[in-house]
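Q: Here's a chain of 158 amino acids. Please give me its 3D structure as tokens.
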Amino acid sequence: MAVNRTPPARIGALGGLLGGCVIWVYEAVVWVGVQHQMPLAGIPRNAVGLVFGKPFQESLGALAYPLGTAIHFGFAMVWGAVFALIWPHFRRRGWEATLLALFYAVALWIIMHVAIAIAGDDHPDYLDPAVVIGGFMSHLFYSVPLALYVKRRMPAEP
């Protein structure tokens, strides 16, 4: 069997792309289909509103779709690379990848939403339990596939 020599950051970025796709499926099913929080077309542009505010998102018109998609997958890839870089440390200590993913999801939600709150005042109500629970759930749907992909692709240490 050949040894995988792909750099961990690249493995993580690819896992982040996978997680980014899965989180959008979750959002389409739950946020759009069940909770009716936004139209399906609102998912790609949502990142623009979270990062730059809703007025800027609206001012972009159709350009909000590709920009939002780039922001979403850009962040997904960066956070995926970070996971792949920290995973060997936790693996050596006996952690299961999916257990780490649960904590990672919570940390990501907190970090990203604190940053969104600092960046502007046009953000969801982070004191609303539905927003908090929905946010944590969506990040779990990101981090678990990411972790499983990274675990599977990362070479075992000697």
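Q: Can you summarize the key feature?
A: The chain has a mean pLDDT of 90.
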